[in-house]
């Protein structure tokens, strides 16, 4: 587990600006498909349609995903930990700031 401290710390730091794309994904899902299924309630002020959100979401998520992926591929090559454990720890560490803010 000691081998994963540095990648977990880097992904925790990457998770702080990751709050924005994670929130955008949740907002689009909550007001689109999940609201259509009845699992969430749609924001009554959201009447601009989904195309506007996709125009905002795709570049933000693409840039964040590219940076996150490149950093983690490089770190994965240098970390002597099992790959499954590495990617699980990194994904959890990246989501931790979003979940911490969402819970509080």
UniProtKB/TrEMBL annotation:
Membrane spanning residue stretches: 12-30, 50-72, 84-103
- Descriptive protein name: Integral membrane protein
Name the UniProt key words of this record, in alphabetical order. Answer: Membrane, Transmembrane, Transmembrane helix
Q: Which organism is it from?
A: Streptomyces nymphaeiformis
Tell me where on the tree of life, at the top rank, the source sits. Bacteria
């Amino acid at each position: 587990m000691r081998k994963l401290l540095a990648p977990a710390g880097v992904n925790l730091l990457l998770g702080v600006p990751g709050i924005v794309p994670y929130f955008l994904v949740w907002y689009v899902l909550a007001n689109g498909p999940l609201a259509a299924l009845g699992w969430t309630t749609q924001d009554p002020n959201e009447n601009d349609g989904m195309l506007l959100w996709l125009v905002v979401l795709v570049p933000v998520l693409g840039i964040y995903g590219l940076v996150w992926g490149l950093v983690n591929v490089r770190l994965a090559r240098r970390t002597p930990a099992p790959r499954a454990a590495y990617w699980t720890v990194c994904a959890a560490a990246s989501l931790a700031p979003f979940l911490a803010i969402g819970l509080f």
